[in-house]
Amino acid sequence: MKSTNEINLQDKQETSEDIQEEATVTVETQLNPENMDEDKKSQTYSPNKRVNYGYIKYVSLAVLTVQNAALGLSMRYARTRDVEMFYSSAAVLMAEILKLAICIVLVMNESGSIIRGSRTMYATVILNFKDTLHVCVPSFLYVIQNNLLYVSASNLDAATYQVTYQLKLLTTAIFAVLVLKRRLKKWQWCALGLLVAGIALVQLSSTGKAKDSSNLPKQSKILGFGAALAACFISGFAGIYFEKVLKESDISVWMRNVQLSLASIPFAIITHVVNNGSMTNLLKGFDGFVWYLVVLQAAGGLIVAVVVKYADNILKGFATSVAIIISCIVSIYIFDFQLTVQFAIGTIFVIGSIFLYGYVPKKPETRTSLSV
């Protein structure tokens, strides 16, 4: 009969052997993932795995709010300064190059090392070339959209530009119905009608005299509205297309943005050459404020990627609404913007439509026979 000490010693030896065997299996599965069971595969780390950090959602929304308001105001100010004017197509190109550099750093950090990140990018972008070609469609559209937004900001005051650009909610909804076959609720159709009415009021309101600049041609509200309208349709289709690409693959958001920027840069170069004839004097008119604008525009795309991943429609609508209000208030003091009753009512309609469209009713609780 074994003593108590012998039994304890045998148990410890068996436990030690089990731990060593488990560690051996773990090392083998890390070196050769094909040896994993399906359950263990699902428990391993994936770069695209959702991180449940609540603060990321609210911090990204706060940053998006400031970025949205600052971008519209900064674009307007940059295009109305009495200095040597920069090429808007060059600013779009520089923003794409900067965004590419930031995304590469994020992919390296996500992969854990520079070598592993480089291999991942090579496998995703080069070896999986057909998948990269799918991203060329939104890449081209985003370049055109960003150039149109500069045209709009050059011809519309910042507040009107900010409100008018919310028409992208309508175009996105239309393409979601046509491309993704989504069915909108009754209140969402009402919200879109309210949005159109609000933007119509804003466009028909008296917005005061625009700040003139000797470096700009005569400003046209019709041209500005037309550019904003075209940008909204492009934004709607490109956003829905990119959403479909994101959901149909397991590639991380940052890797997708690497593909997006790599494909956007050639289109941005072609756009600049078509508009200006050559690549000479590419950085003409670039000063500290223009570089700040480039950083702001590059950061916008990345912030939106984070918000799309972590936030819901209600919170995104709140961020957009606050950005509109900030733009209106700042425009009064910087651009001598005259806030009229008609403009205010139209803005309220637009903000209300954003919240109404993103409204999600609570599901009724299911009652059972045991419920009192």
Share of residues in helices? over 70%
The N- to C-terminal Cα distance equals 61 Å
Mean pLDDT across all amino acids:
78
pLDDT below 50 for ≥5 consecutive residues: which ranges? 4-9, 12-52, 207-214
Number of helices: 15
Please state the CA-atom Rg, rounded to the nearest Å. Answer: 26 Å
Please give a handful of descriptors for the protein shown:
single chain; 372 residues; mainly alpha
List the helices and strands and how they pair.
Layout: H1 4-31, H2 38-43, H3 54-78, H4 88-111, H5 114-127, H6 129-134, H7 136-155, H8 158-164, H9 168-179, H10 186-204, H11 221-247, H12 253-276, H13 288-310, H14 313-334, H15 341-357
Describe the structure.
With 372 residues, the chain is an all-alpha fold. Helix content is 74%, strand content 0%. It is built from 15 helices and no strands. The chain has helices at residues 4-31, 38-43, 54-78, 88-111, 114-127, 129-134, 136-155, 158-164, 168-179, 186-204, 221-247, 253-276, 288-310, 313-334, 341-357. Helix 4 (88-111) crosses helix 5. Residues 4-9, 12-52 and 207-214 have low confidence and may be disordered.
Short description:
The chain is 74% helix and 0% strand. The protein has 372 residues and is mainly α.
